[in-house]
Amino acid sequence: MPKNTIYQLLGNVERDIRQSYTGGAVDVFIPSNRRNIISLINSNIRALFTKLFSYDVNSLYPFIMANRPMPVGKPIAFEGDITKIDPQAFGYFYCKITSPDNIKHPLLQRKIKTSEGIRTIAGLGSWEGWIYSEEMYNAIKYGYTFEIIKGYEFERGYIFKEYIEKMYALRMEYPKGSPMNLIAKLLMNSLYGKFGMRLETTNVDIFDSNNEMELELFNTILDNYGESVQNWIKLDNFYITVRKNFILYSHNESEDFYFGIDVNIAIAAAVTSGSRIWMSLFKNGNKFIKDCPKFNLYYSDTDNVVIDKALPSYMVGNALGQVKLEYIIKKAVFLSPKVYALLTTDKELIIKCKGRRE
C-alpha cells in the first residue's frame, strides 16, 4: 500500500461509518415474463413470453476498487453542510434524506428493525442516516434530496488500481475452472471484505480444573476480564470460556497514524456503495446509458440484471466493468430474491433457491 493511505478508524468514526455499510441489492421487479395475451396456432392455445437477457458485470467489486477513488488518510470531522464550502466534498455524511415520490426502483438502502430482526430495504419517504458522498451525488441525479447535518471528510486515493489490474490480467490468462483463475478471482473479490471486518474477535479458552495453575488462570480471567466474557460452561473437568478480544493498535506519534490489522470500514463501504452506483444505471431506465433501447427490469442481483432488451455492444466484453451475456431466456419465473427458475433459448433449465442450484 502507498504510505499513509489506510488509517485505522476507531471509536465513533468507525461506528458511524459502519452504519452506511450495506451490500448489494437483490430484488424481484416483474415476477414472470409471461405476457397477458395468448396465441391461437392450429387451434392450439399458447401463452406468449417476452424474451429476456441476463447480464453479469465482470468482477464488479474489483472494477470499483480499481476505477473509483477510495477514502484514504485521516478523516476530518465537520458539522453542518460541508458542500456549501466544498461542493465536491468527499467522505461520509449524516443526512436527512428524502426520496422522490415517483422513482420506479428506489436506490438508497437503509437498515430497519422489524419483528424478524434487522432488514435492509430500499424504500420511499424521508429518514436520517449515514451515506457515502459518491452515492449521495449519484442519487441526486435521480431526484433524491439531502440535508447534510455532519460527517467526516477524507482524501481521495486510487490505491488498488495496480493490484486489481495485475490480478485480473492473471485471471484472463487461464480458462474458467483453472486453479490459477480461481485464485486470482478470490484475491480480488475477497480483498474488500477484509477492510470491513469488525474490530473485535472472539477468544475461546479451555482450562483444566484439575490443574491448579490453569484453575488460577481461569479465576483471574473471570476477575479481570469479566465484562468481556460472553459465556462460560463446565464440561467434565474443564472450564470453557468465550470472551471478546479487541484488536490491539500501536500509534506512530511522528506520523500521527494508528497501525494494527488492515481494517478500514470506510474503504469496504466505499466499494459496496460504488457497486450500487454502477448498478443504478440499470435500475431506472436507460437515460444515462448511451444508445441503449428502453428496457424493463425484471430481476437484479448484486452484479446481475435480467432485462427485456439487449444492451449496446460497447457495454459487452471481457474488460473490468463490462457485462457478459449469461443467458437468453425463453421462460422465467422469479418468486423472490435468490429464488427463480429459467428456461434458456438453448433449452437449459436453471433453478436457483437461496444458494442451491440445479
For this entry, give a set of tags:
358 residues, alpha+beta, Palm domain of DNA polymerase, four-stranded antiparallel sheet, 8 helices, 38% strand, globular
What does this structure look like?
The two termini are 42 Å apart. The strands form six sheets. This protein has an eight-stranded antiparallel β-sheet, with no helix packed on it. A four-stranded antiparallel β-sheet has the order 5-10-6-9, sandwiched between helices. The protein has a three-stranded antiparallel β-sheet with strand order 11-13-12, with helices on one face. The radius of gyration is 25 Å and the shape is globular. The chain has 358 residues and is α+β, with helices and mostly antiparallel strands. The mean pLDDT is 88. Helices cover 22% and strands 38% of the residues. Strand 7 (110-114) and strand 8 (117-121) form a beta hairpin. It contains eight helices and 21 strands. Helix 2 packs across helix 8 (265-279). It has two domains: 11-196 and 258-357, Palm domain of DNA polymerase (Alpha-Beta Complex); 200-246. The longest helix has 15 residues, at 265-279.
Concise synopsis of the structure shown:
The protein has helices at residues 11-18, 60-67, 133-140, 161-172, 179-189, 191-195, 212-224, 265-279, and strands spanning 27-28, 34-41, 44-49, 52-57, 70-79, 91-98, 110-114, 117-121, 126-132, 145-157, 200-208, 229-235, 238-246, 250-252, 257-259, 297-300, 304-307, 323-336, 339-344, 349-353, 356-357. The protein is an alpha+beta fold.
